[in-house]
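TICKET: design request
STATUS: open
ATTACHED STRUCTURE:
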């Protein structure tokens, strides 16, 4: 029973570590990377108007028109927008962590052409937001005219937090906006280095596209489910295309599966070792009780009865060992986060004193599935390990057995 208990305890801890590592890895990747799915209208945008060679030829997904200056291709705003209600539909789907709507157009900030992004309050959750180097991100609940500028654009215009800029669209002055933040886009050039962000409500008001957006950003609960969620969006909502970062999805899935397989193999090896212990114990039990087996057969016991007797014993060992193993594994699973410094402040003084004993952080997820699987595995190992000894006991020659009487 102790052999089964140790094996079950190890497999429960390792399965729980695998589940915790998978969850932690998914959260880490979600926090490090931007939106995993971008939903756009599946119609082909029509590019019209005149403009310089800053960019053109449809190498970007945005909508809008601009009369604000050279270097930007003027783009027709009709025919490639989405209803904002689509975001609400996506938000109700399973495995969706965050959804954010955006309306993009080309405008002019103090007579300098700029990509203008209108974003909602969920933008940071769905895309990990902007790298704000000065000031703050937009307060989407504010009804005032506020704007966040890319650092290169702010430097070129000699603007700082608190400056007031003039925003225009389609040759129309849309009013003054107060700079509340400046962000860094990293090492970049072209239109990305001349971007600005305003609230979605302001963007819709400026472009006169009420309740319409140009793209919807989606982040999933589990990075391995990106393709599944994207397929669900495309098949469920007509007129949209869900674009995914395939390389990201593959990397996340591979990493998660590798960690899970690693822990599961180690756990199964431990359980297998426990199984050999049960086989050895049961074989010794048969040898030690040869006299009893011979006596039972001499008074008329059948081979099937003898086999059921030993199989019942093996089953009992498996069940009791599995229960003890689950209890021990559960305790170990609760203690490990304390030793690694992953426990919360509610564990008390003793828990905080143990925190940091192990390097790094361990995340353990004791799920009903893992507990049930460990109980089943322990019981099955006990039963399977008892088959050979029980069979040998049932086939024992009573005459040979009686020699030990």
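STATUS: resolved
RESOLUTION: sequence designed for all positions
ATTACHED SEQUENCE:
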């Amino acid at each position: 029973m102790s052999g089964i208990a140790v094996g079950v305890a190890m497999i429960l801890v390792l399965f729980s570590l695998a589940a915790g590592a998978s969850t932690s890895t998914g959260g880490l990747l979600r926090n490090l990377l931007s939106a995993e799915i971008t939903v756009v209208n599946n119609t082909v945008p029509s590019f019209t108007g005149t403009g310089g060679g800053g960019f053109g030829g449809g190498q970007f997904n945005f909508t809008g028109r601009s009369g604000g200056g050279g270097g930007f291709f003027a783009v027709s705003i009709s025919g490639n927008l989405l209803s904002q209600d689509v975001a609400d539909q996506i938000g109700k789907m399973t495995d969706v962590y965050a959804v954010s709507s955006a309306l993009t157009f080309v405008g002019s900030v103090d007579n300098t052409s700029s990509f203008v992004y209108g974003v909602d309050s969920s933008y940071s959750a769905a895309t990990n937001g902007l790298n704000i180097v000065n000031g703050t991100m937009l307060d989407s609940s504010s009804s005032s005219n506020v704007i966040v500028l890319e650092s290169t654009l702010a430097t070129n215009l000699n603007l700082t937090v608190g400056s007031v800029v003039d925003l225009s669209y389609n040759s129309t002055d849309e009013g003054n906006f107060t700079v509340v933040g400046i962000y860094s886009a990293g090492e970049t050039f072209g239109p990305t280095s001349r971007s600005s962000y305003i609230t979605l409500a302001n963007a819709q008001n400026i472009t006169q596209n009420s309740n319409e957006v140009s793209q919807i950003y989606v982040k999933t609960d589990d990075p391995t489910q990106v393709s599944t969620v994207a397929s669900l969006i495309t098949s469920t909502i007509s007129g949209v295309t869900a674009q995914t970062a395939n390389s990201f999805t593959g990397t996340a899935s591979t990493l998660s599966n590798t960690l899970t397989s690693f822990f599961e193999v180690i756990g199964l090896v431990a359980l297998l070792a426990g199984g050999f212990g049960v086989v050895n114990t049961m074989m010794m039990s048969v040898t030690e009780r040869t006299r009893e087996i011979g006596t039972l057969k001499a008074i008329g016991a059948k081979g099937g009865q003898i086999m059921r007797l030993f199989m019942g014993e093996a089953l009992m060992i498996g069940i009791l060992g599995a229960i003890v193993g689950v209890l021990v594994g559960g305790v170990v699973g609760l203690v490990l986060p304390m030793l690694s410094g992953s426990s919360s402040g509610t564990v008390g003084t003793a828990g905080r004193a143990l925190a940091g004993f192990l390097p790094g952080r361990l995340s353990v997820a004791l799920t009903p599935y893992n507990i049930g699987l460990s109980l089943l595995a322990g019981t099955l190992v006990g039963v399977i390990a008892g088959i050979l000894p029980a069979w040998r006991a049932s086939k024992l020659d009573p005459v040979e057995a009686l020699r030990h009487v």
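CLOSING REMARK: The chain is about 50% helix and 20% strand. Residues 246-288 form the longest helix (43 residues).
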